[in-house]
Amino acid sequence: MAIEYLMLQGVRNLAPLSISPSQNVNLIYGENGSGKTSLLEALYLLSLGRSFRTHKQKSMIQHEQEAMTAFCKVDGKDLGIERTRAGERRIKLDGEWIKSAAELATLVPVQLLDPTMFKLLEGSPQLRRQFLDWGVFHVEHNFINSWRDMKKCLDARNGLLRRESKSGKPVSEMEKDIWHNQLAEHANNLNKMRQAYLTDFKPVFDDYMHRLNSELDVTMSFYQGWGKERNYLELLNEQWDSDSKQGFTQLGPQRADLRMKVNGQPAMEVLSRGQQKMVVCAMKLAQASLYQKAADKPCIFLVDDLAAELDLKHRNALCGLLEELKCQVFVTAIDASQIADNWSSKSQIKRFHVEHGTVHQE
User: Which pLDDT does position 1 carry in this prediction?
Assistant: First the structure.
């Protein structure tokens, strides 16, 4: 599975472009600010319907343009996304309009490695939940429905809590029981799927971690969002008064987290920035490997500024593992010589030079 053709128009500082990438390795190089990362950003948009650089999606639209368009041919299908300055997002797949961006993640599954990837360890639990749930989504077909049902029940319970807090009148036991029973059921289903995924994930991660940096002894544990031995339904009833004072549900699958440690200490406290990136690389490689096993097709890797904070030894190790996955890679650098020699002669490599927003294939 690979992007066979890419067309962009109105994306940041990029001139309109049409390219046919290599199904193996695509080296994208040029000076800072030339538009290299914008090209990766557009590919990411085609997978998740949003940018990885900003929450303000209209900032992707080129100055003085009213809209931007990203189009690709992938897996024999035509996929196009348009974003307008008015905030509209339109997605068309093989000539048919689609509403849900969830279909994009299945059609164009991407893994992003960029200079900010250490935030997966240092950042909020939400980032690690999103990482975990991306993996579960692709191996458990019922996950998205269970997640949506849980979110609906959670929102309903939070509404009851706010109503009680605002009015001062107790919510009826019948109302609480209705939403508590449903929320507990969906929460337990989500928890089982997450734990089953991690059972498969951990040994694959351990193997990649050893191959990237055998000196690091990294352990991973899962916090489900409430006490491990506690019955969630009972906990919802016990927590009602405390949650009512806060106005929201404090415990549950919406608080789940992956906790990474090195020699018993939180990874983000003892690892250097470069070591943190190695851990995240192992996480992304493991996830891609499990995806490939489940879907029988590889992910697409977007690697922004490969040379940043990774020495030659670790760059070679990472590139070798990407080659083993036989996946399509888009990798950026200031100078092509920084990354060209990290790949074996077996890879089919195309080079694209980006200068002042214009992309030239060499």
Answer: 74
